[in-house]
Write a structure and sequence with these properties.
Distance between the termini: 65 Å
Bound molecules: flavin-adenine dinucleotide
Number of strands: 19
Strand content: 15-25%
CATH class of the largest domain: Alpha Beta
Oligomer: single chain
Strand order of the largest sheet: 6-5-14-15-16-13-17
CATH architecture of the largest domain: 3-Layer(bba) Sandwich
Number of helices: 13
Length: about 425
């Protein structure tokens, strides 16, 4: 086999999909991860419809194996709890019938990332190295000389940096700095015995006063477990001097409504925290001989905190761009800039709308109003449901007419 010209740093969902995309075209790649799989990743563990979309593009058989796997449960919608505690029950699809082809899934990252890595291991084209931390990266005559913690070195034409929220490569080479107003802090823990979870595994987002402008979540998992956590924008955490772990403990033990659901619940292990680099601002995510993927490229949805789908989408696009670069033998920043264009052409309109929705959470009365009205108005409920299926429907949020209808069209239907 030819010498690999591409190195992918990080075998999370973004890096794994980039590697598989290249390997499917018979292109040899080196994929390194500093951990050994299965490994944990602090996350809410919810896979959105975009994960399904990317797997369908990359290899529909992988999607089929996920759909039949016992590591996941299908999720059919989302329960929004407004600051006034009113529930808005929103299916991802209107009038759905339950099958094994759910619009979203819930699976621990320990299992899901290992599932993808098992797919990676099937390809002889992928030289997959675990416990292999990328430490140094140096430009030498148009190539990258990459050094690992073990002391080993490789020389390649291009790096796909998919090394997550704390990517040293994105910071040092991509010049992406952490900005608190475009960054979120999140904590989560696993529980058993939480009561009142939805039988169709609707995920629960609780926009309660204590966590605004963030939210508290309960996500059902296989075998009666739940992923419970909360997230908030980092500038707000600093302004309000909030300790997220203590706040989560307080909600679970003292919140007048939610604590009742945890009376007989057991927390497995500790509450753990990690950062979420948000895609609420466009960045330059490529340069001479490299592209950034997923969290390294700050692509997390600023309203929902969803980052797995965007990591996989950008990983697929990075793999395709690397294929073009190899065939044109052009790894220049000018050539790779088209990767930025492709990623933002696909993701920017939804990231921008999510930024607007993130702002709406700063106005609890508006949130309460939307939920109250939607509960009385079937058309509005259907509109919100359709927003999960159809991006054009989300554009309604930018239209003054949507708010006019919201204010004045609350006839019970
Ligand atoms: C609390 C919390 C809740 C979240 N909830 C959700 C959710 O419910 N749904 C959702 O879609 N998203 C959620 N996210 C976001 C999601 O976790 C990330 O967007 C997603 O993991 C990004 O994937 P990635 O492949 O870019 O990076 P990662 O999954 O972080 O993978 C990066 C990989 O790179 C490796 N690595 C790092 N440095 C090096 C190095 N120097 N050398 C070699 N390897 C290296 C790491 O070991 C890791 O395996 C949440 C995040 C947090 C913090």
């Amino acid at each position: 086999m030819k010498k690999p010209e591409i190195l992918i740093a990080g075998a999370g969902p973004g890096g794994a999909i980039a590697a598989i995309t290249l390997a499917k075209q018979g292109i040899p790649v080196i994929l390194v991860d500093k951990e050994t799989f299965p490994r944990d990743k602090i996350c809410g563990d919810a896979l959105s419809g975009k994960v399904v979309e990317v797997l369908r593009k990359v290899d529909v058989d992988i999607l089929g194996r996920l759909q039949l796997s016992p590591i996941q449960v299908g999720s059919w919608g989302v329960d929004f709890y407004a600051p006034n505690r009113k529930l808005l029950h929103v299916p991802f699809k209107t009038n759905y019938v339950k099958t094994d082809k759910a619009p979203g899934y819930l699976t621990t990252r320990l299992d899901f990332d290992n599932f993808l890595v098992e797919e990676v291991r099937k390809y002889p084209e992928i030289d997959f190295r675990e416990s292999c931390e990328m430490k140094t990266f140096e430009r030498i005559q148009g190539d990258w000389k990459v050094g690992f913690k073990s002391g080993a070195e490789v020389q390649v034409k291009m790096i796909i940096a998919a090394d997550g929220a704390h990517s040293a490569f994105a910071r040092k080479v991509g010049q992406i700095q952490m900005e608190k107003s475009h960054y979120c802090g999140g904590v989560r823990a696993y529980y058993t015995g939480v009561t009142g979870m939805d039988s169709d595994n609707f995920i629960e987002l609780h926009f309660i006063d204590d966590v605004l402008p963030g939210y508290f979540w309960i996500f059902p998992l296989p075998n009666g477990r739940a992923n419970v956590g909360l997230g908030m924008r980092s500038d707000k955490i600093s302004q309000k001097k909030i300790d997220l772990k203590k706040l989560m403990e307080k909600i679970v033990t003292q919140d007048p409504v939610l604590s009742k659901r945890f009376t007989n619940a057991t927390c497995e292990g500790d509450i753990k925290g990690y950062g979420l680099p948000l895609g609420s601002k466009k960045r330059k995510i490529s340069g001479d001989g490299f592209v950034l993927v997923g969290d390294a490229a700050s692509l997390i949805d600023p309203f929902t905190g969803e980052g797995i789908g965007n990591a996989m989408m950008s990983g697929w696009m990075a793999g395709n761009k690397a294929i073009e670069a190899l065939s044109a033998n052009n790894f220049s920043s000018d050539f790779l800039k088209k990767y930025d264009d492709a990623v933002y052409a696909r993701l920017w309109s939804e990231l921008r709308l999510s930024k607007i929705m993130q702002e709406m959470v700063n106005y609890p009365w508006l949130f309460n109003l939307v939920v109250n009205k939607a509960n009385r108005n079937e058309e509005l409920r259907t509109t919100i449901s359709c927003m999960f299926e159809d991006l054009d429907m989300r554009k309604k949020l930018r239209s003054p007419r949507f708010y006019f209808n919201l204010m004045f069209a609350d006839k019970a239907k």
